[in-house]
């Protein structure tokens, strides 16, 4: 597959995520590979991938690829983007990559999350929870960085189109009949 192949700009049916989604994942934001993703306009919050921890063992089973969903973040009160609300968590749309980054040929599996909102400061060390709603595409190798960045920017559009404007893809704190349980994101 090349970058010129058309791909859908929205993922999943209007009726909401289909099994095995949504996946839940949680961890403290750690330092990543330090490749300057931020300079590319695509900072990614890296999460620990501990393949021996049974509570996150699905990460070894889930296919490598690009996923999208919701992230909740417990920012410290002195962070410029902190908002005092009833919950200690704030919710943001996200895209994420799980795998070995074929463009960089990583030897270790990584999980990195790009939040679609802009932040005024870093949030290393903050607790992040993820509700992974669906799969966008497989990870790919690229001829150059521009093609990789273009594909990631398109992933962001797919996530926006898929998460907003469809009730069943929007996280609701109150679980109603048949709806997925998102309360976990808010607690
Ligand atoms: P690293 O190699 O350490 O992961 P990055 O260049 O990928 O460095 O930057 C990631 C850091 O940038 C995150 O850990 C977080 O603290 C911060 N950050 C700021 N804005 C965002 C955002 N929108 N999405 C993800 N991380 C962000
Ligand atoms: N790396 C790859 O090697 N191939 C990919 O297809 C790929 N897709 C990505 C999609 C998203 C949404 C994100 C956030 C990252 C992706 N990455 C991919 C990881 C990327 O190489 C990494 O974030 C670099 O640090 C960017 O410079
Ligand atoms: Mg990163």
What does this structure look like?
The protein has 187 residues and is of the alpha+beta class. It is built from 3 helices and 6 strands, in the order E-E-H-E-E-E-E-H-H. The protein has helices spanning 58-61, 145-163, 183-186; strands at residues 23-28, 45-47, 65-74, 90-99, 110-115, 127-137. The chain has a 6-stranded antiparallel sheet, covered by helices on one side. It is globular and about 45 Å long. The chain starts with 22 loop residues before the first strand and ends with a helix. The model has no long low-confidence stretch (mean pLDDT 88). The protein binds adenosine-5'-diphosphate, riboflavin and magnesium ion.
Number of E strands: 6
Proportion in helices = 10-25%
> What is the ordering of alpha helices and beta strands?
EEHEEEEHH
Specify Rg, calculated over alpha carbons. Answer: 16 Å
| Basic shape | globular
Distance between the termini: 41 Å
Low-confidence regions? none
Unique bound compounds: adenosine-5'-diphosphate, riboflavin, magnesium ion
**Strand-pairing-aware structural class:** alpha+beta
């Amino acid at each position: 597959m090349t970058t010129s192949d058309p791909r859908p700009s929205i993922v999943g049916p209007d009726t909401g995520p289909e099994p095995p989604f949504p996946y839940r994942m949680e961890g403290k934001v750690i330092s990543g590979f330090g490749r300057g993703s931020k300079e590319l306009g695509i900072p990614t919050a890296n999460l620990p991938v501990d393949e021996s921890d049974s509570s996150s063992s699905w990460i070894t089973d889930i296919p490598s690829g690009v996923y999208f969903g919701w992230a909740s973040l417990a920012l410290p009160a002195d962070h410029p983007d902190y908002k005092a609300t009833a919950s200690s968590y704030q919710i943001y749309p996200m895209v994420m990559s799980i795998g070995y980054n074929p463009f960089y040929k990583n030897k270790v599996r990584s999980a990195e999350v790009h939040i679609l909102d802009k932040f005024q400061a870093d949030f290393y060390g903050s607790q992040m929870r993820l509700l992974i709603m669906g799969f966008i595409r497989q990870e790919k190798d690229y001829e150059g960085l521009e093609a990789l960045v273009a594909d990631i920017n398109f992933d962001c559009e797919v996530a926006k189109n898929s998460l907003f404007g469809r009730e069943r893809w929007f996280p609701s704190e109150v679980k109603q009949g048949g709806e997925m349980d998102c309360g976990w994101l808010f607690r």
